[in-house]
């Protein structure tokens, strides 16, 4: 016998909407035994679904499907009896959901974003746009972006004409670099033998370190720490490294979005690791 959620899921799948069941708390069902602890090679609830072929929804958004054989199959059928809601993958449908979590967020959207299809939620609204983009949480107070690599609850078709995804929404997930602020950086006083021989050696090392930080496209925290560690290891014991050199490294890190506090922590941790 079909449950209401299963009936909804099959209706959505027939319209090419990729769906999955949610349990209480608006979260997917847990990994199946075959995929427990990533045994299948995938990354449950993360950005890469991996090679898993299990019929259960063990990879959250990546499990969303339009295949009725999976939806009603032996892996999923028992879950619909326990399901608390139906979810779908907006990005898989080529959509973006602007999740407005309270009245103030809705008021902001009304002032800022172009009108589009809206769906009422428990506390606010979902605004749906045509076009997919990277997802992000808390892009401002009470506003989440749900599109690729996430799921959203199905709360009905909504009302109003759906419009194209505007640049104003895309801009919400662009990380703005922290303003570069001058800081006083503790630099080792030195006393060891200088291996630089010429000032150009030190200058080249600092320039290369700035370039390494600026080129980081992921793992910025780790890149900053490793770069600080390398600079201090090479230039931190003889006294040639000055406050201005360290400030240049901090400035490079801040342009990548690092806070002054994180820069200070990374610098201190690197010095500790080298026994300085």
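Sequence proposed for the structure above (276 residues):
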């Amino acid at each position: 016998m079909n449950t209401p959620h299963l009936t909804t899921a099959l209706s959505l799948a027939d319209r090419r909407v990729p769906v999955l069941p949610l349990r209480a708390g608006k979260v997917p069902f847990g990994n199946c035994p075959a995929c427990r602890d990533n045994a299948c090679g995938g990354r449950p609830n993360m950005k890469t679904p991996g090679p898993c072929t299990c019929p259960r929804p063990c990879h959250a958004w990546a499990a969303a499907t339009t295949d009725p054989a999976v939806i009603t199959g032996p892996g999923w059928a028992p879950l619909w009896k326990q399901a608390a809601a139906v979810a779908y993958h907006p990005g898989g449908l080529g959509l973006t959901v602007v999740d407005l979590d309270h009245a103030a967020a809705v008021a902001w959207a009304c002032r800022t974003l172009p009108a589009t299809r809206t769906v009422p939620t428990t506390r606010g609204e979902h605004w749906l746009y045509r076009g997919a983009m990277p997802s992000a949480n808390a892009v401002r107070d009470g506003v989440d972006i749900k599109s690729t690599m996430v799921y959203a609850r199905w709360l009905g078709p909504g009302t109003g004409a759906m419009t194209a995804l505007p640049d104003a929404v895309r801009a919400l997930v662009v990380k703005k670099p922290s303003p570069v602020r001058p800081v006083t950086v503790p630099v080792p006083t030195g006393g060891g033998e200088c291996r630089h021989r010429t000032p150009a050696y030190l200058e080249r090392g600092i320039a290369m370190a700035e370039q390494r930080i600026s080129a980081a496209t992921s793992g910025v925290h780790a890149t900053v720490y490793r770069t600080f560690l390398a600079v201090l290891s090479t230039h931190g014991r003889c006294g040639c490294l000055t406050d201005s050199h360290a400030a240049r490294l901090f400035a490079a890190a801040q342009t990548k979005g690092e806070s002054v506090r994180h820069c200070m922590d990374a610098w201190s941790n690197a010095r500790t690791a080298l026994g300085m």
